[in-house]
Design brief:
By secondary structure, this protein is mostly helical. The chain has 15 helices and four strands. Strands 2-1-3-4 form a four-stranded antiparallel sheet, covered by helices on one side. A hairpin with a 7-residue loop joins strand 1 and strand 2.
């Protein structure tokens, strides 16, 4: 603990692990609440998905008719031409519906993700400093960037593929059973093996994909911490130590991803093997059935097509399966952040702070970031116009007193009054709007110097910005930097024609 504040430290603070389930009803329900305003588009996507599945089921039926009715039975060229045209039409419809459903679902996904990212950003801005003390900013950034990106994949690919593949599987099985129940049951005899293989890989993949979500957060946290502290790293010549520490974190993420990918890549070959086995069954049993007159050649050709199409959605479902696992883990962490309680918030019925005169009173104040007290029974008063200096060793609570006055944290005992008003009885915005706080580690936002000066008062005029710079004894320094930059730049550039605190970068 330094300066009365908790130290960040290099260690990544792990939160509660997600359960690694493929389908988490709580996460799915929350995600649907974001999609509900777009339900008409979602319904339209479902219609398009059903049309796509129907065209893929109808195709082999047309092949059967072409072979049995027009090629072998009547040698009808006109009929073959008509069936060929119908088959081409099903392909066109399938391509059109797939393209349209992908675009429509992408629109829904982007609207949903924009709303989620906005809520995350709003929540991060409202969370108390105690939350940021306990959580690495890199991990928080990972929630907005990496975890939301997994949601994007789920919405644009995962959900549509699941519905489309399930409809296709049901349609194929039903059609095969109608054509030839015996051959259908024989060709689908490999399904129990598929179920066992799925269960085997499922158990081992759950924690593997969850681990990848955690380690990518560690990488983001380690990178952010190293970049933020690069000045200290270089000052103490600790570049190699910092690099080694990041390499360990990076290798952990690499190993977690390799293990998850190895599990994911081991499953598709099993599906391919089952597909080839089912094809061999159809060829062997189907050929014998044709010779004995039980079924026609067209049925065998249709079955061969169906077997190929049957295992294609199974392969896709195996890939979507891992995506669902990652999305459920990511969703658990995203909604955990959105639902995190705000420890320091306005009380119900809090009023606006009246114009501040300036009397500050600490009345028997107790405070600590953890169970260890930082301030204990502290009392003092500062009158308007007084200049008060707090002197003490590191960890004595000097920074904490300033933070408590701005109500970044809530005290455990006592009262803090400004002009006789308990700061917990007024809104934090109205209190902080009348305060000026200069942290020991200043932060500059991207933009001009003027943008940073008027950050707390966006409506300030250019003259007020210049006056503020003069009051802070920064005006001459800004002007000198502006002139130096002007000389080093192209003087003909109109954007650099005049430098002041208002225009300097």
């Amino acid at each position: 603990m330094m300066g009365g504040q908790p130290m960040g430290g290099p260690a990544f603070r792990r939160g509660a692990r997600a359960n690694g389930r493929v389908f988490d009803p709580a996460v799915a329900s929350r995600l649907w609440s974001y999609m509900r305003p777009h339900k008409l588009r979602v319904i339209w996507v479902a219609v398009l998905v059903a049309m796509t599945a129907a065209t893929q089921v109808v195709g082999p039926i047309l092949l059967k008719i072409a072979i049995d009715e027009f090629l072998l039975a009547r040698h009808d060229l006109m009929g073959l031409t008509f069936i060929s045209g119908a088959f081409a039409f099903t392909l066109l419809v399938s391509w059109t519906t797939q393209a349209h459903q992908s675009y429509t679902m992408a629109l829904v996904a982007q609207d949903v993700l924009t709303q989620i990212r906005g809520e995350l950003f709003e929540k991060i801005n409202r969370l108390s400093l105690s939350y940021h003390d306990r959580h690495e900013s890199g991990v928080t950034m990972s929630r907005i960037v990496n975890d939301v990106a997994v949601f994007q994949e789920l919405l644009t690919q995962g959900v549509v593929h699941v519905v489309a593949d399930l409809l296709l599987l049901v349609g194929i099985i039903a059609t095969m059973l109608v054509m030839s129940p015996k051959l259908a049951l024989d060709s689908l005899a490999v399904l129990p093996i598929m179920v066992l293989a799925t269960i085997f890989f499922t158990k081992r993949a759950r924690q593997a994909f969850l681990k990848t979500r955690e380690t990518i957060g560690e990488v983001a946290a380690g990178f952010q911490e190293s970049v933020s502290g690069v000045r200290v790293v270089q000052a103490f010549a600790r570049e190699e130590v910092s690099q080694d520490r990041f390499e360990r974190i990076n290798r952990g993420n690499r190993n977690a991803n390799l293990f998850a990918q190895a599990l994911g890549n081991a499953y598709p070959p099993v599906v391919e093997l089952m597909a080839m086995l089912a094809t061999a069954i159809v060829l062997w049993i189907g050929t014998n059935a044709v010779i004995s007159g039980e079924i026609t050649v067209g049925v065998v050709v249709a079955f061969l097509t169906y077997v190929t199409r049957f295992f294609q959605p199974i392969r896709e479902l195996s890939m979507v399966y891992s995506l669902f696992q990652q999305a459920m883990a990511a969703g658990d962490k995203i909604f955990e952040l959105i639902d995190h309680p705000i420890e320091v918030d306005d009380r119900p019925g809090a009023r606006a702070m009246p114009p501040i005169v300036g009397r500050v009173e600490f009345d028997h104040v107790d405070f600590g970031y953890t169970d260890v007290p930082v301030l204990k029974d502290v009392s003092f008063a500062a009158e308007p116009g007084q200049t008060i200096a707090l002197v003490g060793p590191t960890g004595a609570g000097k920074t904490s007193i300033a933070s408590l006055l701005a109500r970044f944290y809530d005290i455990r005992g006592g009262r803090i009054r400004v002009d006789g008003v308990d700061i917990r009885d007024v809104t934090m915005a109205s209190l902080r709007r009348q305060m000026g706080l200069v942290p020991q580690d200043p932060f500059l936002f991207s933009g001009t110097i003027a943008d940073n000066i008027r950050f707390g008062c966006p409506e300030a005029s250019d003259e007020e910005v210049v006056q503020a710079a003069r009051l802070a004894n920064a005006h001459d320094f800004i002007e000198s930097v502006a002139r130096t930059t002007h000389r080093a730049s192209d003087s003909s550039s109109p954007s650099l024609a005049r430098f002041s605190p208002v225009h300097a970068f």
